[in-house]
Design a protein that fits this description.
heterodimer, A: alpha+beta, 2 domains, five-stranded antiparallel β-sheet, four-stranded antiparallel β-sheet, 9 strands, about 30% helix, globular, B: mainly beta, Immunoglobulin-like, twelve-stranded mixed β-sheet, 2 helices, 12 strands, about 15% helix, LpqE-like (chain B), signal (chain B), PCuAC_sf (chain B), Copper chaperone PCu(A)C (chain B)
């Protein structure tokens, strides 16, 4: 029996004993209120070889929380923090309240809630764990296209929380933040979204706020390709089954983008807006023909097109993109405050990510309308089993 | 699956309750009992999700806090939580059972529950902020978030249990302690439990 079931049955039993049939009606009403829909009741298993929330199909809503360790937080305290955060996350993921939880009823509909934890470079250095930094893990170099602001950049700890329900998500954010803040200080929070559950088939690739189909080349969950791109092997050993996250906040200037017509938008990426097919193909997943020329002798997919610059035949330069859109209202001048929380997951930032990012810095027409304003990297430990905690290999 | 179990349990106890009600007027409730009291003498209640409110800083060299959790009684007889004791390094004051009630002024205050906290037979009781709790007085040292506190809980059937409680941060559980609340007298200067 689940914990929920136990509590429910215990309450019912006590009520029947204490007051007899009169309470039965009220108890039934309470049960009816918490009855779930398929979307609300859906859960993602917290425990396993890898952390949840990475191979998990997109949830509709997500939040990244950046924390810095407090100055007096020791190795032992960091361990406690991760034990408590793990406990919170595991309970919330199955629709149970955190322990304790002042708003337990907000936990009842998990809607595929996941909470995923990662350590920034400062986590290792502040705790004297520099020798345990995973291979290839380091801050990104300064790029000339970047206009980074501190309120969206870097932190010692990241908690990435996703759910198909924004109310459930807000509650989980609050519970995890309460636990984390005994040991660390919030640095920023960044909220994003994709389409709501049920609006499009779960397998359909998302669109970003430029209207582009975004994520076509991702490895499919559960495949060898996915595992090879995303999950680290044992270097160092505690990191086996972990992954590295590059989180970039990319401001997208919707107002200048609006000045393009559809053709101009399509050649900037090299894909059709209608279905994401390469300009040389018909269907989304058609292979792009990089050699194809138009009647004027120009490349159909131009040299400056994002997909030409980003794509690679080198399997060691591929990684998972799991971006969320952000839309933080309208600025006072009437322009958009929108963009992408570009979240990329890979076994090794240095070998897989840096070459691709450098090509995009050197040439990518999309840079005309996009500006990276936040940047952070994290080492995400492997998953854990019941009784364990996230980061145990590093902190035990 | 879960719902089936609940339904069965609820039905079983509803039946038993009706039987007890039917018999209560003319005979001893013991008449419906199908067990021997001796068989339950050694039953120790079980407990889950036990936590204590962190007290990260002492005030005036001392502090107080409270312990919460779910206690389940698998036996045929009610069992009462009588209180407990903590590690002497934390506090040497006996841990009393407390409840939160409304005083004459309409305020919610906590007071000792001198007769203990009953865990109904085949039932459970939840100790939570604003309700039943096990009270710690005279803390000699702070309790940090994430600390594990071990106490001995004593029960009315003569058993006791060693209970681990993890210290967690919570903003409530700040009820004013009113030692006169249960006497109806004018409240004495009261202390407020505020470890936040």
């Amino acid at each position: 029996m689940t914990r929920r079931g136990f509590l429910l049955s215990a309450g019912t039993t006590t009520g029947a004993f204490a007051l007899g049939a009169g309470v039965g009606v009220a108890a039934n009403a309470a049960v009816a209120l918490r009855a779930d829909t398929a979307v609300g009741a859906a859960t993602v298993n917290f425990y396993g070889a890898h952390q949840a929330g990475i191979e998990t199909p997109f949830q509709a809503h997500g939040v990244f929380l950046g924390f810095d360790l407090k100055r007096d937080t020791t190795h032992v305290m960091a361990r406690r923090m991760m034990e408590l955060l793990t406990d919170d996350a595991a309970r919330l993921a199955q629709g149970d309240p955190a322990l304790p939880d002042n708003d337990p009823y907000l936990a009842e509909k998990p809607a595929r809630l996941t909470a995923t934890f990662g350590f920034g470079p400062g986590f290792f250095t502040k705790l004297g764990l520099s020798s345990q930094i995973p291979a290839g893990f380091a801050d990104l170099p300064a790029y000339r296209i970047d206009k980074l602001v501190p309120e969206y950049s870097g932190s010692d700890l990241v908690i990435s929380i996703g759910s198909d329900d924004p109310l459930t998500l807000a509650h989980a954010v609050r519970q995890l933040t309460r636990t984390a803040r005994s040991f660390s200080s919030i640095r920023w929070s960044q909220k994003g979204f994709v389409r709501s559950q049920g609006v499009a088939p779960a397998t359909q690739t998302n669109r970003n706020l430029f209207g582009q189909v975004d994520g076509t080349i991702n490895p499919a969950p559960g495949t060898e390709a996915f595992a090879g791109q995303v999950w680290a092997e044992g270097s160092p050993s505690w990191f086996a089954g972990g992954t590295q996250l590059v989180l970039r906040r990319i401001a997208m200037n919707l107002d200048t983008w609006d000045k393009l017509d559809e053709g101009g938008k399509e050649i900037s990426v090299g894909r059709k807006l209608s279905n994401g097919a390469p300009l040389t193909g018909v269907h989304e997943f058609d292979a792009a023909d990089m050699e194809a020329k138009n009647s004027a002798g120009l490349s159909v997919i131009p040299d400056f097109a994002h997909m030409r610059r980003a794509r690679t035949d080198n399997p060691k330069e591929k990684f998972l993109r799991r971006p969320l859109n952000y839309d933080d209202g309208i600025l006072l001048d009437g322009t958009s405050n929108s963009g992408l929380l570009f979240a990329a997951y890979m076994a090794n930032i240095q070998t897989q990510y840096l070459p691709v990012q450098q090509r995009l810095v050197d040439l990518d027409l999309l840079n005309t309308w996009t500006t990276p304003i936040g940047s952070a990297v994290y080492a995400l430990p492997p998953g854990c089993l019941p009784g364990g905690f996230i980061g145990e290999g590093l902190l035990s | 699956m879960t719902m089936t179990i609940i339904a069965k349990r609820t039905l079983a106890f509803a039946t038993l309750t009706m039987a007890a009600l039917a018999l209560a007027g003319c005979t001893s409730a013991a008449a419906v009992s199908t067990h021997t009291p001796e068989a339950d003498a050694a039953v120790v209640p079980t407990f889950t999700d036990v936590w204590v409110k962190a007290a990260p800083e002492l005030m005036g060299g001392t502090g107080m806090t409270a312990l919460f959790g779910v206690f389940e009684n698998p036996s045929h007889d009610d069992i009462t939580i009588l209180g407990g004791t903590a590690d002497a390094a934390l506090t040497t004051t006996k841990l009393d059972t407390h409840e939160v009630v409304q005083n004459d002024a309409g305020e919610m205050v906590m007071q000792e529950k001198k007769d203990g906290i009953v865990i109904p037979a085949h039932g459970s009781v939840t100790l939570k902020p604003g309700s039943y709790h096990i009270m710690f007085w005279d803390l000699k040292k702070p309790i940090a978030v994430g600390d594990t506190i071990t106490i001995t809980v004593n029960f009315s059937n003569g058993t006791s249990a060693t209970v681990d409680a993890v210290a967690r941060d919570i903003a409530n559980a700040n009820e004013t302690y009113d030692p006169k609340a249960d006497t109806g007298a004018t409240p004495a200067p009261s202390s407020t439990m505020n470890m936040g």
